[in-house]
Design a protein that fits this description.
- This protein has 13 helices and 18 strands.
- It is of the alpha+beta class.
- The strands form five sheets. It has an eight-stranded mixed beta sheet with strand order 2-3-15-8-17-7-5-4.
- α3 links the parallel β2 and β3.
- It starts with a strand and ends in an 8-residue tail after the last helix.
Length: 432
């Protein structure tokens, strides 16, 4: 039986009070910042709506090492990017055919929806194993990992942004004409934890101290130790992913069931982190962009977009009611058309969704492959994930399934051919 989304529990009033008491002059500074954020959103959301898919930067894989500082800054500001030609078209298309064959030969596999499976609870097909280990895929994620830094200039021991790791996730082969309601706007990688975990909260310290324009979404300092899964909810990543991403296996254009993003990660972070502390004044609209219509209010336990989910929490799930100032009905822009072998990545804090409708003529097929750097916690997870791979069972972050060890065409360790691919999956590399 599916769990229902519920309100935040009363105890979270105390969390708001704790946060408010942890920063000097919190009410005054947060109120000033809130007014500035509203006014910035009023301007920026109109610009985003006018720009559409052009908001999402596009680069060639071959030029990653030679991009200008201005181009890199644009990618970081938008929080998303399309990287063209990471894998040859023919190889990516072949992987798609292998996936089709795997699904056909193993009809009892788990997927959604039950009567017409398109989103599969599968992790170890030959296609997925080979794609994650492809040197170009890992090079793209290495480049993305290195867009992060330590803002203070200090070094963090045992963290290597130049060593990419492989995080096993699922794939989809979405059919045209099917409405998709399972991925509305949301942010992954932590729900109430963004406020409740004291380390995770430090990632947003500039916002909470009122200096929201100084917030750096790419500061590693506290990201690597933030606890994004305090309540052990299945499908809640425990790994630090710098960017989430997917590899296109088919041509998919806007309107054909593709990814949508809100392309301003600093502004969306600032807005969502401070929103729980404000309410419209009596008689004023919750949609108002006028700072004078708002007041500081920590008297209720709600964190907009965060929902109780059994004994855990899910979210953030912003929508036009919980976060009206983002104008999500206009600003969730679809990524530009992709072709087999292209990859799309979005920062771990970016609000993203999947288009509800697929009006194209062919399947929209992608394999989910995020960017994951070497950290002690990430490496420990990869060790456990490697054992899941060898046993043919779901990775540690995902719900238990009947596994794939019985499946025809399951990927093997021998399918990981490159040394960088072996290392990324936690296998020892033979030195000649």
């Amino acid at each position: 039986m599916a769990l229902e989304l519920g309100p935040c529990p009363p105890r979270l009033v105390e969390l708001k009070k704790e946060i408010a008491g942890a920063y000097p002059d919190f009410e005054a500074r947060a109120t000033k910042a809130w007014g500035e954020i509203l006014q910035e959103l009023d301007k920026v959301t109109k610009e985003i709506a006018n720009g559409g898919s052009q908001n999402v930067p596009e680069v060639q894989f071959s030029e990653l090492g030679s991009l200008s500082p201005e181009r890199v800054a644009e990618i970081k500001r938008k929080g998303s990017v399309v990287i063209r030609d990471v894998v040859d078209d023919a190889e990516a298309s072949e992987w798609k055919e292998w996936l089709r064959e795997y699904v056909t030969k193993n009809p009892d596999i788990e997927g959604h929806p039950e009567n017409d499976k398109q989103f599969f609870q599968l992790y170890w097909t030959k296609s997925q194993v080979r794609a994650r280990a492809h040197p170009n895929v890992l090079e793209a994620t290495r480049w993305l990992n290195q867009t992060y830094h330590i803002k203070s200039g200090d070094k963090v021991e045992s963290v290597d942004l130049a060593t990419p790791l492989s995080y096993a996730d699922r794939f989809r082969i979405r059919h045209p004409g099917v409405q998709w309601d399972v991925h509305p706007p949301h942010v992954d990688g932590g729900a109430i934890e963004r406020w409740e975990d004291d380390v995770f909260r430090k990632c947003f310290a500039d916002i909470l101290s009122g200096n929201w324009r100084e917030h750096d979404p790419y500061d590693l300092r506290h990201r690597i130790d933030a606890r994004s899964s305090l309540y052990k909810r299945p499908n809640q990543s425990t790994v630090f992913r710098t960017y989430q991403g997917w590899l296109a296996l088919s041509e998919t254009a806007p309107g054909e069931g593709t990814l949508q993003v809100f392309p301003n990660v600093l502004l969306s972070n600032a807005y969502m982190i401070l929103k729980p502390f404000f309410a419209p004044k009596e008689g004023r609209s919750a949609d108002s962009f006028d700072p004078a219509d708002w007041q500081f209010d920590i008297s209720n336990p709600e964190f907009p977009g965060i929902y109780s989910y059994g004994q855990a929490f899910t979210g953030p799930r912003p929508n036009t009611k919980t976060h009206p100032h983002m104008r999500l009905d206009e600003t969730m822009v679809s990524v530009p058309k992709v072709y087999p072998g292209d990859m799309v990545f979005w920062h771990c804090d970016v609000v993203h969704a999947v288009e509800r409708t697929h009006n194209g003529k062919g399947d929209s097929a992608v394999m989910y492959i995020p960017a994951v750097p070497y950290t002690p916690a990430n490496a420990a997870y990869i060790e456990r994930q490697r054992e899941s791979f060898l046993q043919g069972i779901a990775p540690p972050d995902f719900p238990v399934t009947k596994g794939e060890i019985h499946c025809v065409g399951i990927g093997k360790a021998d399918d990981i051919e490159s040394p960088i691919g072996k290392k990324a999956m936690g296998f020892a590399i033979e030195v000649a």
